[in-house]
Amino acid sequence: MITTTGLTKIYRADRSRGREVTALDGVDLHVREGEVYGVIGQSGAGKSSLIRCINLLERPTSGTVTVAGQDLTAIAGRGPRAGRELREARSRIGMVFQHFNLLSSRTVQDNVELPLEILGRSGKERSRKALELLDLVGLADKAGAYPAQLSGGQKQRVGIARALAGDPKVLLSDEATSALDPETTRSILQLLRDLNRQLGLTVLLITHEMGVVKSICDSAALMERGRVVESGTVSELLATPGSELAAALFPVGGEPTGDDRTVLDVTFQGEAATQPVISQLSRTYNIDISILGAAIDTVGGLQVAGCASNCPAATRTTWCRSASCANRVFRSTCRAPPPSGPRW
Amino acid sequence: MTWSEMQPLLEQACWDTFYMVGWSTLIAVAGGLPLGILLVLTDRGGLLQNVVANKVIGQVVNIARSMPFIILMVALMTFTRWVTGTTIGREAAIVPLAIGAIPFFARLVEMSVREVDGGLVEAVQSMGGSTWKIVRSVLVPEALPSLISGATTTVVALIGYSAMAGTVGAGGLGDIAIRYGYQRFETGLMWTTVAILAVVISLLQFGGDLAARSLHRRTGKGGPVLLFRPLSGIFPGTVATDAVKKS
């Protein structure tokens, strides 16, 4: 649904001294139709530049952006002004902002009607659609209020209703929950998830909170210094040995207790999560395992269990290989030592 | 000079002042608003970025603003004759008044419009809004309270300028204060005009502040402080309820 290839954005901060900041460095992103895709990274990693390049609020220095089969970079034209074609394409992409960006001079309903005004809809149709959307986000009673009279969560609901007014296929969310408290964040994420399911909306969201990815994303990408370091569906990422995202999504840690011992990171998901793999292994291979840490969680709708177990180093190799035979779905990572330890 | 002698003089002078200031304010707003918006749009990073145009407009505005009004009035005489067919009288004074006030108001508009949150512009851009739509739906309505304050300041400045319009025979309060009050030693008349001007300006400022404030109140942003706040000043309770409402 959204594809970027080799997306690069260089800001020329100071022309005379030729200082440049590379915000995006060849980003390839592929968001499938109907999924919730999370891009996570620290401040300055280039997430904001990325999402703003997708609807060309920022012109990429090079690379292409394709949304719903349309190459936006091709219709953008030269110069900073958006031509008619690009404006039409933008009206089919909804966007939600961290600071809501509602017009304080307009009522809630008029704010939601704004995109419809741009699309040239009639007054009657505008108000019908706006009320319908406000009902959808649970704010039907606030149509006549001004944004200043709403709480943060309510403002973001209005922001979401407004973003949906033009019946977009794609919703971009720029840190939509970062200005909200945890409880409100949960309800907004739930709303985004519901909209994604009900309307088949493709959602691309950027965030610096791992919790957001954990609770609603089907796929995720980790950005660092303008590059996508890791990407994939959440289940793929969890199954990838050494994945930073997986470690962050699902942190289970532990250090080996002696030189002859090693730590195994074991992650199960889906069906395998309910099977007594550890005790089976212990019995079958007659090794002593102590569990250093473990957690069970639901990530992106999948149940995941993980544990870091301390076992004799000598049996390490057999242990893992046998495990692979015992259960194909079961995945494990041998972290240390040595770095080139067995993995599969 | 008795009151019965002063009254018709003052009445006429008031009407002359209102007439000149009224028309020149309308023209100044009509001219200054687009000019001020253009100054913001053409600036570096603006929606219609055009550094050359921006520099040219900025320079023209600066030159017009740096000129003392009385000199502007004389310098514009040819233009005034071309527009109104005469260089004396009320109509002839409106031309330099308006032209003097356009750059003044334009700078105030520029300041107000710059204050508008860039995120709002971005939001409308992301919906596919054109530059014109952004001006109409974001820049002007969001800056409106501040624009009203700016217009009030412009009217007050124009009343000040209009005192010099007597030079071209346009009459007005300033004119009779000079001609009767100063040149004929009619101190009573002079103080009366001063008092009228003070009252008129206070009322204008009060009205402007009230309008700006009522918009602010609606939109929930902190408005300008009113010159006269009879209730909240005397009864602290009203301030408290204000604060409660806001929180």
UniProtKB/TrEMBL annotation, chain B:
Pfam families (UniProt xref): BPD_transp_1 (PF00528)
Membrane topology: Multi-pass membrane protein
Any single Gene Ontology cellular-component annotation: plasma membrane
Keywords of the record: Cell membrane, Membrane, Transmembrane, Transmembrane helix, Transport
Domain of life: Bacteria
InterPro entries in alphabetical order: AA_ABC_Transporter_Permease, MetI-like, MetI-like_sf
Membrane-spanning intervals of the chain: 20-41, 62-80, 92-109, 143-168, 188-208
Ranges in a coiled coil: none
Compartments (UniProt record): Cell membrane
Listed GO biological process terms: D-methionine transmembrane transport
Gene3D superfamilies assigned to the protein according to its UniProt record, in alphabetical order: MetI-like
Domain ABC transmembrane type-1: 14-212
PANTHER family: ABC TRANSPORTER PERMEASE, D-METHIONINE TRANSPORT SYSTEM PERMEASE PROTEIN METI-RELATED
Family listed: Belongs to the binding-protein-dependent transport system permease family. CysTW subfamily.
Protein name: ABC transporter permease
